[in-house]
Design a protein that fits this description.
- By secondary structure, this protein is α/β, with parallel strands linked by helices.
- It has one domain: 2-enoyl-CoA Hydratase, Chain A, domain 1, CATH 3.90.226.10.
- 52% of the residues lie in helices and 17% in strands.
- The protein has eleven helices and ten strands.
- Helix 6 crosses helix 10.
- The radius of gyration is 17 Å and the shape is globular.
- 41% of the residues are buried.
- This is Enoyl-CoA hydratase.
- It comes from Mycolicibacterium arabiense.
- It is found in: Peroxisome.
- One of its GO terms (molecular function) is delta(3)-delta(2)-enoyl-CoA isomerase activity.
Length: 252
């Protein structure tokens, strides 16, 4: 099962489950996560959604082998929902979303933090937005969400540099709300999720709607700008070289 689903007292925990690929998102995982988010949103018994990963990674981002196939394979098949579907599901989610970042988060594994209501991060976790090192544009409306969340200069450094940000720096920037010892991460995220789940679900949804609704149009516009830039740069010399280097390292 690509996304493990566990319910406990109004808290639904979704666990990305491709540990052999560091929970990198291929089309199948995008589809499974989209469906899981939509199902949690529609379930009247679910008050809070927690998202985490199996193994040593939260998510290594886009599956770069599949990204290269998108460029080189004329028969490449996109998923039913794919990346756009998951972003739409995150944007439309009416229930509070808690992220428990258990390990490295790269690409969408970092930019997804912009959709969270609360982020708990293991003290040994780290984040990277590798877009410039891959020769592509930002994604997931991060060009809008990150400056809004952590300020222009912090966002510029993350999006422009392709450098790692450790957990302490993520906390300082405001990307993470609380740092936890790795062994305490899920218990701490679960404890806070249970507090929220003890409240009225319609009230939780009303609070989230009043926070998020003013941003939804701007998120959609930012995503459209990013998709347009991404399509131009995908398969460019810089991108093709980066993907080729990655493929060679995988086979060594």
């Amino acid at each position: 099962m690509l996304v493990q689903i566990d319910d406990d007292g109004g808290v639904r925990t979704l666990t990305l489950n491709r540990p052999e690929a560091l929970n990198a998102f291929n089309e199948a995982l995008y589809d499974a996560t989209t469906v899981a988010l939509r199902d949690a949103d529609a379930d009247p018994d679910v008050a809070v959604v927690v998202l985490t990963g199996t193994g040593r990674a939260f998510s290594a981002g886009n599956d770069l082998v599949e990204m290269q196939a998108r460029i080189t394979d004329p028969d490449f098949q996109s998923g039913e929902h794919g990346f756009p579907g998951m972003i739409e599901a995150l944007t439309a989610l009416r229930k509070p979303l808690i992220l428990a970042v258990n390990g490295l988060g790269v690409g969408i594994g970092a930019t997804i933090l912009g959709y969270a209501d609360l982020v708990f991060m293991a003290s040994n976790a780290r984040l990277k937005c590798p877009f410039t090192s891959l020769g592509v544009a930002p994604e997931a409306a991060s060009s809008y969400l990150l400056p809004r969340l952590i300020g222009r200069q912090n966002a510029a450094w993350m999006l422009l540099s392709s450098e790692w940000v450790d957990a302490d720096e993520a906390l300082r920037m405001g990307l993470a709300w609380k740092l936890c010892d790795p062994e305490d991460l899920m218990a701490e995220a679960g404890r806070h999720a249970a507090v929220l789940a003890s409240r009225s679900i319609p009230s939780l949804m009303a609070v989230k709607e009043t926070i998020v609704d003013p941003t939804r149009d701007a998120i959609a516009e930012a995503a459209r700008r990013e998709y347009a830039k991404f399509e131009v740069l995908l398969g460019s010399v810089a991108n093709a070289d980066a993907l080729s280097d990655f493929a060679e390292r995988k086979t060594q």
